[in-house]
Amino acid sequence: MIRNVRLIGRDGLWDIEVEDARIARIVPAGEGTGDLLADGAGGLASAPFVEPHVHLDTTLTAGEPRWNASGSLWEGIAVWSERKQSLTRQDVIDRATEVLRWYAANGVLHVRSHVDVTDPGLVALDAMIEVRENVRDVVNLQLVAFPQEGIVSFDDGPQLLEKAAERGVDVIGAIPHFEDTREDGVRSLEIAFDIAERHGLLLDAHCDEIDDEQSRFVEVLATLARRGGLRGRATASHTTAMGSYNGAYSYKLQRVLARSGINLVSNPLANLCLQGRFDDYPKRRGLTQVKEMLAAGVNVAFGHDDVMDPWYPLGTASSLQVALVGIAAAQLTGTAEIDEAFRMITDRAARVLHLGDAYGLEESRPASLVILPATSPYDAIRRQTRPTHVISNARLIARTPTTPTHLTWPDEPPRQITFTHPTAP
Ligand SMILES: [Zn+2]
């Protein structure tokens, strides 16, 4: 039994009874029975955070063999190709597992990771398949076969993608804007959809991650998804070119995307840093049209993309940090929009991973949840609280005690500062 928690969208305090690793009953506080799994102390219980987009095979390599001094995408690629020389199975397993520990400690229990498969040995993929198995009891890890250097424009690209599907990835990737020609880009998406459909897999492409307003592969991806029946099973990640599309085309695109049912994943941490590098002022920041696409009815989620690697040197694998930066980047500062940003790292991200009944804080769903020392999603994002409790499949896997700051102020007795305020929602 989990005692004394607030729930999103419900007034009052509640107890959550757990049976056979599932949520059996949610009852008013004081009415719950059973052994105590966690005392929420009035904190906010939520379904766990969901990471819809990260590259675990490159994490924790920032500074190896050298730092990305300019911070550009291009120097990042150059640094990575140097680091890639020393890539081994164990190296990938150790770094990916460590970041998954960070994710779990932050209450992120579902993670979709892209893995570079433009390597004839598929070293990183085999390592990540092993990691997926090792962490299964704690974190649900989805793997995307990500052709970093292209499908059509890379030697044996289609065969490597097919091989990755056979080895057991969950999702097929693509990178159409990186292919040599526009036609190659379209062809690469057709190949990716064909493999995904034949193997019954999901699809998630790095799509239009460039400032070029002529990069328009998201319309191709959406149309292939709608016609081929992948709809909600297909995702376009990054889509930063959308930040440069004109109004007339954006309007048309909203309809195309809404009709297709595809998901979008915006990665504000990395793309605020990587895009706009060829601009003088005014300088673009290459973010997808988050607010507009949400308004058009498109499912949009926020992802981390990189944790301490050549493209983004910071990060602690915290979804709440991603949401905070996403709110600032996409100008989602209305209180309803801040609540929406919380959904973009929970429910909406879960839709990207196609989790269905395997996700949600509801009776009969898995007993996986976080308890935040906060009164609301707004409060959790604003104060960047770490979960006091992380529960995965009915097991308490992480605890973080809250520690207030003790402040001594002139002419006052020492007091505790918690950064709370009565006017906060
Ligand atoms: Zn990415």
From TrEMBL:
Q: Which Gene3D superfamilies match?
A: Metal-dependent hydrolases, Urease, subunit C, domain 1
Molecular functions per Gene Ontology: cytosine deaminase activity; isoguanine deaminase activity; metal ion binding
Which InterPro entries is this protein grouped with?
Amidohydro_3 (IPR013108), Metal-dep_hydrolase_composite (IPR011059), Metal_Hydrolase (IPR032466), Metallo-hydrolase_Enzymes (IPR052349)
Q: Residue ranges of region Disordered?
A: 403-425
According to UniProt, the name of this protein is Cytosine deaminase
So which domain of life are we looking at? Bacteria
Q: Residue ranges of the Amidohydrolase domain?
A: 39-385
Q: Which UniProt keywords apply?
A: Hydrolase, Metal-binding
Question: For this chain's UniProt record, which GO biological process terms are given?
Answer: cytosine catabolic process
Question: Quick check: keyword Hydrolase in the entry?
Answer: yes
